[in-house]
Specification:
Helices cover 27% and strands 17% of the residues. It is an alpha/beta fold. A hairpin with a 3-residue loop joins strand 3 and strand 4.
């Protein structure tokens, strides 16, 4: 990264009270697919515990003044009992602080279980609050439950909620959110760990989903030595195009006269069943999801209502307007020439998960999440002119090549994480697990697959890429969890084993559980471009029935769009002689 000279801050940093919000995340819980005698929840942590070298109260005196790359201050230290720790059932010293200009962070330091490992958690949506919780992708990970990790998170440089981030009208705060917050937190956390335990962590890991997945890829691309292992779930890495165009397209496609939604929640279940029956037959209907959705090209016109026909629960059909809406969702955001403005589209088999995101619960499309994101993006995130429009609405968005070029030129360099050249990360010994739900309506997996394909092409082919980076696609799983397919899995044990034992995962074990925690279904999730196929004739809900098979649809996916996955688009910003300057990042 280009180093800017004389980066002075012409304003004083403010000390704000950190708002720690513990939410029930819509994120995946996890359990690793083990082979042979390897246990699914086998711990890779060292048995030796590293004790603190100072007291929790003494941590407030750790000197961060000489830290290069982040100007930080510890604002409080508190001893936390295991029962009160949101990061897990282990006693900790809670350290809160602030990184200039306004990034609030919280770090939990194990007081009797630390094994020399650091875990940094990403933040979803527009962030705006510090949310340390149990790891996203780690169901059954004993390192996590045993308290072997010190765990930290931040608010990405601003306070707020939802997707409206008016703070981005400040270019410095937008840059912090865009690319620097997680790097700075990594620097600060490691310095605090060294001061508290007497030594820096042996291994460091990052786990994030959605915007947290984008943060994960920013780290791999811009700061390749920060983390030994990175888990990037459903990454919002093509962020400018996603927020400015793709989500506006989805919302506009479902907007009828007077803002009334064209598709309603009552339409989604029978539509979903029609897709499953057409593309997967009775097996897919029983499972509730498609195993290979990219192979499905079902046309919604096949169930268009005939003249005089009225749709009923027993005789479901789509109106002409609904057929057009579904077609638009499956086709993806396009300009008048048919060129995609985002490298993806809603996949067939994801219909049930459109509820909330694309299809609102109320009678106005503006209540859908996609409509909200698109509106607030144009109000406070995205601007092709430098002037933010507080009255912008998702219906105002134009899907033109000219607008695409203006918006991406203005925002890609700070917000996107699409560089396919991960050679510095590979050279540093880093390992990357990418994952996405195949029925994700929020960040459709086609874009993630397209990025991984670009990495494969750039890094010398699939075999070479799989030495340090793998992609796993979960059938039937929605955005960062939930959905119809098995969605509990353990990528954290997989990544720590890969880093510490050089044991690369060929698959992950995903499970479904009922309300009492009993496993009701299991499925092996094989690395791209393989899918799980029942070749044994065994139970379709048992992982032992499945073997890997190359998905021709995954392998041959070749999305052409107005953008590209390339190096050299990144920018870096800073204060130079009292002026805010943005320059090319100069990454290798």
């Amino acid at each position: 990264m280009l180093t800017l000279p004389s980066l002075d801050h012409p304003r004083r940093s403010r000390t704000w009270t950190i708002v720690a919000v513990v939410t029930a995340a819509l994120m995946v819980a996890v359990g690793m697919w083990a082979t042979g005698s390897q246990a699914a929840n086998a711990s890779t942590a060292s048995t030796s515990v590293i004790a603190p070298s100072i007291s929790c109260s003494g941590a407030s005196s750790i000197n961060l003044l000489t830290l290069s790359g982040a100007n930080a201050e510890i604002t409080s230290t508190t001893s936390v009992a295991a029962s009160a720790n949101p990061a897990g059932d282990w006693a900790a010293c809670e350290v809160q602080g602030i990184i200039t200009p306004e990034t609030h962070f919280t770090l939990y330091l194990p007081t009797s279980t630390y094994a020399g490992e650091y875990l940094q958690e990403g933040c979803g949506g527009g962030c705006g609050s510090v949310n340390v919780s149990e790891p996203t992708a780690a169901t059954g990970c004993t390192q996590s439950t045993d308290g072997n990790f010190a765990v930290a998170a931040d608010d990405e440089g601003h306070e707020g909620s939802g997707f409206s981030v008016m703070a981005f009208q400040d270019p410095e705060m937008k840059a912090v959110f865009g690319y620097s917050s997680e790097h700075q937190l990594a620097l600060v956390s490691k310095a605090i760990l060294k001061g508290f335990y007497g030594s820096a962590p042996t291994e460091s890991y990052f786990d994030g989903c959605s915007d947290g997945g984008r943060e994960a890829l920013i780290e791999a691309q811009r700061y390749p030595t920060d983390f030994n292992g990175i888990i990037a779930g459903s990454p919002a890495s093509i962020q400018t195009e996603l927020n400015a165009f793709e989500e506006a397209w989805n919302a506009q496609a479902n907007t009828g006269a007077g803002g009334v939604p064209i598709l309603t929640n009552a339409d989604l279940a029978p539509l979903h069943t029609a897709v499953l029956q057409a593309c997967g037959g009775s097996t897919a209907v029983t499972l509730g999801y498609l195993s290979d959705p990219l192979a499905c090209d079902w046309n919604p016109a096949g169930i268009e209502c005939k003249t005089g026909q009225t749709s009923t629960s027993s005789d479901f059909c789509l109106t002409a307007a609904q057929v057009e809406t579904v077609d638009k969702l499956y086709s993806g955001v396009r300009d008048s020439s048919g060129e995609l403005l985002y490298p993806g589209y809603e996949l067939r088999g994801s219909e049930l998960n459109w509820a909330g995101w694309i299809v609102p619960s109320g009678n106005q499309e503006s209540g859908a999440i996609d409509a909200n994101i698109a509106t607030t993006a144009w109000q406070s995130w995205i601007t092709p002119t430098g002037t933010f429009d507080g009255s912008a609405n998702y219906m105002d968005v134009k899907f033109t090549k000219a607008d695409f070029e203006k918006v991406t030129a203005e925002n890609d360099g700070e917000l996107d994480a699409t560089d396919p050249n991960l050679s510095a990360f590979e050279k540093a010994g880093g390992k990357l697990i990418l994952w996405a739900g195949y029925s994700d309506p929020a960040i459709n997996p086609a874009g993630t697959i397209s990025y991984y394909q670009a990495v494969v092409k750039t890094m010398g082919g699939l075999n070479a890429t799989e030495q340090f980076a793998k992609l796993f696609l979960l059938p039937g799983v929605a955005h960062c969890g939930g959905g119809q397919g098995p969605n509990n899995f353990d990528a954290l044990t997989a990544i720590t084993d890969w880093v510490t034992k050089d044991s690369a995962p060929s698959s992950l074990l995903a499970t479904s559980t009922n309300s009492s925690g009993t496993v009701t279904a299991s499925l092996p999730i094989y690395a791209y471009p393989n899918i799980a196929v029942d070749t044994t004739g065994g139970s379709i809900t048992s992982a032992s029935s499945y073997t890997p098979e190359v998905s021709k649809a995954e392998e041959s996916l070749n999305i052409q769009w107005l953008g590209s996955f390339r190096s050299g688009y990144e920018t870096v910003s800073g204060w130079v002689n009292g002026q805010w300057v943005t320059r090319p990042a100069g990454l290798n």
